[in-house]
Amino acid sequence: MIKTPQGKIDIVIDTDTYNEVDDQFAIAYALASPELNIQALIAAPFLNAKASSAKDGMEKSKAELLKVLTLAQREDLKDIVYEGCGDFLPDEKTPVIAEGVQKMIHLANAHTKENPLYIVGLAVATDIASALLCEPSIKDKIVVVWLGGHSREYEDTHEFNMRQDFAAARVLFQADVPFVQIPCRGVASHFLTTRPEMDHWLYGKNELATYLVENADKEANTYAKGKPWSRVIWDVTAIAWLLNHEERFLKEKEVLRNLPEYDGTYSYPDTNLRMNYVYYVNRDALFEDLFKKLGY
Fold this sequence. Notes:
By secondary structure, the protein is an alpha/beta fold. The protein has a single domain, classed as Inosine-uridine Nucleoside N-ribohydrolase, Chain A. 35% of the residues lie in helices and 19% in strands. The chain has helices at 22-31, 54-71, 99-108, 126-134, 160-163, 166-174, 195-201, 207-224, 236-242, 283-294; strands at residues 9-15, 36-43, 81-83, 117-121, 142-147, 179-182, 192-193, 231-232, 250-256, 259-260, 266-267, 274-281. The protein has an eight-stranded mixed sheet, sandwiched between helices. Strands 7-8 form a two-stranded antiparallel sheet. A two-stranded antiparallel ribbon has the order 10-11. Helix 2 (54-71) links the parallel strand 2 (36-43) and strand 3. Helix 1 (22-31) packs parallel to helix 9 (236-242) and helix 3 crosses helix 4 (126-134).
């Protein structure tokens, strides 16, 4: 069982920041948590209606990362923002080379098994899988915390971070690397908020907090204007794992690893690889800490 780290730790955040509204909350949460020493912010690829290609998604995510840092008044961190992969893996053996992948490897090699680098994946696993394929030895110097896939009980695993690059997800699940999975539907999907709640705790508190509220509201009104809505702030749960002392935010267990298949199901191969599996989010406790830190 991988234990929640103690003291100040080095982290890398791999994020498709422009894709949704939750990455911005997660980055802001990490910036506001003094235990977390952010070594790199890597823009990950994505492809949907917001991006004309995976590379376009990555480039828009980089721009959004820089915007969040400006709003947070953390101009000092802009030189640790890196471009991730411009495309998804062509297969399970071929990495995609990018400056963010090379930086991830470089940072990992400066760490040890006793003092690992924590890589937090808030996006498709392409960047992380590419780093593992390029330099397999880093598996002994890192811990990967990935928000992706759905719960084991859910009907399928056609989750965005996983289905964008099943090859990368399969590389990650089969790598002999310390690994924490936070599933989306059935687990992180419990981490919901609403405009009135965000207004009460965040709106007008500071420039970044106000942007987070307005950005979430704008997104929700593209599909639910004039209707009741709540919004899942998925990615905050991955940052929360790093701060989960005495399981105050999340509950997890050690399990044998499953394997995502290309047909959107999980298989259960006969291996001894194990991982931490988060199965519960203490929604109120985590929002209390998030709102307190962001609404300063």
